[in-house]
Every structure is written in structure tokens, then in C-alpha cells.
Amino acid sequence: MAFVSTVCSRSHGGGINAFTNNNIPSFASIVAHELGHNLGMNHDDGRSCTCATSACIMNSGATGSRNFSSCSADDFEKMILLTGGTCLLNVPRPDEAYSAPYCGNKLVDMGEECDCGSQKECEEDPCCEFQTCKLKSGAQCAYGECCYNCQYLPGGTVCRSSTDECDLPEYCNGSSSLCQSDVFVQNGHPCRNQQAYCYNGKCQFYDGQCQAIFGSKAKVAPEICFKDVNSKGDRFGNCGYHNYGYKKCESRNALCGKLQCSNVQTVTVFGIEPSIISTPIGGAKCYGVDFMLGSDVPDPGMVNEGSKCGDNKVCINFECRSTDILNYDCDVEKKCHGHGVCNSNKNCHCEDGWGGPFCEVKGYGGSVDSGPTWNDKDTSVRDGLLVFFFFVLPLLALGVFVFMRRNELLRQFGLGRRKRSQGYQ
Q1: What is the mean pLDDT of residues 134-142?
Q2: Which of 157, 262, 360, 403 could disulfide-link 172, Cβ–Cβ 3.0 to 4.6 Å?
Q3: Based on the domain organization, do 407 and 297 belong to the same domain?
Q4: Is 70 exceeded by the pLDDT of residue 416?
Q5: Rounded to whole angstroms, how far apart are CA atoms 323 and 310?
Q6: Peptidase M12B domain spans which residues (predicted)?
């Protein structure tokens, strides 16, 4: 069992696999299947997929398969384009490798500066030496988001842009080829004009969830839809599973069960044909969806965790809980002097124009975790100011002086010429 597109989620980026026999190829295929879900891949069943074998890894009944289908490739590409895999850009530490280190494996192991792979691959690498796994003469780096043409990118270069109002950008520091670790706004911070909360780098609001499933015109249905439909305890209205069956939502938890939308399109944007049910309630038309992804995939038609279900209330595990569970403890006015937000490491991330650990002084924004937002080695502004104050400004002052005293200077110049003329006579 694994969640879909959650490879970078701190709370859902994993899966459960049971090794019940000694069939290692079969178990390897199961692990690949569940990992595929984490990487955004849905089941191949009922889809027009191209597969090199009779059944590929993401087929719900396949065991022992070694190939992914064209649908799996498309699903993974979609997750990347929707910025669901930003953490995959974080380079693992050399001491976290699970294979025997050697020069040529294209992994930068302990003691190596780079690793370009085979001799043929290294012939095309301008930065790294073959067999030694050392940088070539004059090269500062060979890989990473902050490395270009074997040189470090200047500090302040954006290496990971913000993907959501609850996400924060990271910058190159000018002395490393790697981008800073990914951080985001602290869970529980208000977003969308106080109507929602930040949760794991996303502003979790109902309209956005409906639009992710049904398109840009969809909106959240009235609250009565949630209370009525989710009280039934079936596949179109529930608060998860309990004792091998669907769990009915208590009234206080209804907003944390199956998502209910209105003004929907007839086709979802997931690329999967689900079952859609329309329920008329009190003059409103409530739409719910069941993707039928199988027992190993949590239902993406449920309300997202972190959604605001009331004043100081948030959805966690299909229950409407107090926001205290998020441990949000950032007073931005006191801690960040009203000029920033707290990030997921509980450090202040300052707005542009403010700096310091607590955004208490003038600066360039960012945080101790984001990397510098400016290039401290760029002297062009300083040099420009020096030229202006010591060359351009004096010339301007001289010009203004000459212009203001032009009549007097002309008279003195004319008088001098007349005296010299009389002397010659």
C-alpha cells in the first residue's frame, strides 16, 4: 500500500510491502509497484497503455514484471511538471549510499569530487576526470543545480523556485554546487487570506482540491453536501475504513471525509476514468468521485490532510481536530518583526528588504536555510556608485556651476580679451 504522488511528503512518502514468501523477483516487482505509486503512477488497468510485456509493473495483478508502461511514464512526467517531486533534486549524502563505492559508478562516493561514469561517458564531461574521480584543472564543480560550465553559479541565483504560497524559494550560496535543502512555510500558517492553512508546503483549500480533480471551474460544494453524503458510509461518502468497511462520518468530521464539489466538468483531469456520483441536496448538486485505484492506493477523492474544517480546526486522518496538533508556534509579529514567516525549521524567512535571523534589520530577504538572496561577490553596484560619486557627480556639479555663472564668466573672458588687445596696440 502506498500513497500516490507523495514521494516528497514527510508524512506520506512511503509504503507498506509484505514479504510473505521466498520469491524475491515477485517481491521486487511489488516494491517497484508501490514505489511507482509514490512517484505519481496509477494502475494501468483499463487504460490505453503501451507495455513491452503482457503486463507491466503498475498493472494491479502483475507480479514479477520488470517494465513500466507508457502510462507510468506519463504519470511520472505529470507529477514532475506539477512540482510534486522537487525533493528528488536533493543529492543524497555520500554516507547514505547503499552500494559498494567505486570510481565509475556515477555516484559521488566518500573521497570523490565527481564521478562521470565510464570512459566513454567521461569523454563528454568537461569537468570530471576519468578513473580519478577528481575535478579537472580549473573546474570548481561537475554537477548540481548550482554548477554551470564547471563553475559555481553566483550566490543569490534561484535554484529551486517557490511552487505555492506555502512554499519558499532556495538560492545558490556561491560556494557549493548543490542547492539548499528544500524548506517551506511552517505547517499551520494561515494562507489564502486566512481561509486555509499551510500543510507540507501546500495551501490546502477545498476549491483547489476540486479544481485538481474536476478542472479550473470547479468549486467546493455547500457544507450540507459533506454532512449528508459522508454520513452514508459507502464508497462515495465516508471517513475512511473501519473493520474492513467504509466508516460513516460523524457530523463534526464530515468536512474531512470524501470531497464534495460543485460546478464540475464531466471528465476529470487525472487521466483516469472514475465513477462520479451526483447527489442533489437542498437545491445544490453535490459531486463525489471514486477512482477505484485498488486496495493498495489511498483514495485521492478524499479531503486532503491539513484542510481547514472550522475555526482553529484542521483535517487529520479523516477527523476535524484542533490546530494544536500541528504544533504551530510562530508569532510572526514578535519573532519575525512582521516582516517574514517561519519556515519548516522554525526559522524566520524574511521578505525582500529585510534581513537578519529575525527580520529585524534592512536586508535582502531569505533565511539561514534558503541561502543568500543576493550575490555578495558582485561588486558592479559598488563600482557603479564609486564611478558616479567620484567622476560623474563632480562633472555634473562643474557643469551646473558653469551654467549658473555663465554670464559672469563671459564678461570676465571678454574683459580679458580687450585688455590683451589694448596691450598689443
Answers
A1: 96
A2: 157
A3: no
A4: no
A5: 10
A6: 1-92
